[in-house]
Request: fold
Amino acid sequence: MHVRVVLFAMLREQKGVSELELDVAPGTTVGGLEARLYPSRQSGSVPGKLLYAVNQAYVTRDHELQDGDEVAFIPPVSGG
Reply:
């Protein structure tokens, strides 16, 4: 399956790109894709809780991806 990944803020800076096109195995979840892209999140080097969106709708980590999905990883933001 093929998915498009959109990255924002510090996640974009870590990867050096704002979008990725990836092939994933059938049954891959948003959480599985996150672990593939950011294995360091397990060690806490990417702080905060992410929001996830698939095809512009918020989803949970256990959401199963489909061919052609657009997945967005949205880090916490602050402002002032």
Q: What stands out?
A: The beta strands are 2-7, 19-23, 51-54, 57-59, 70-74. The mean pLDDT is 88.
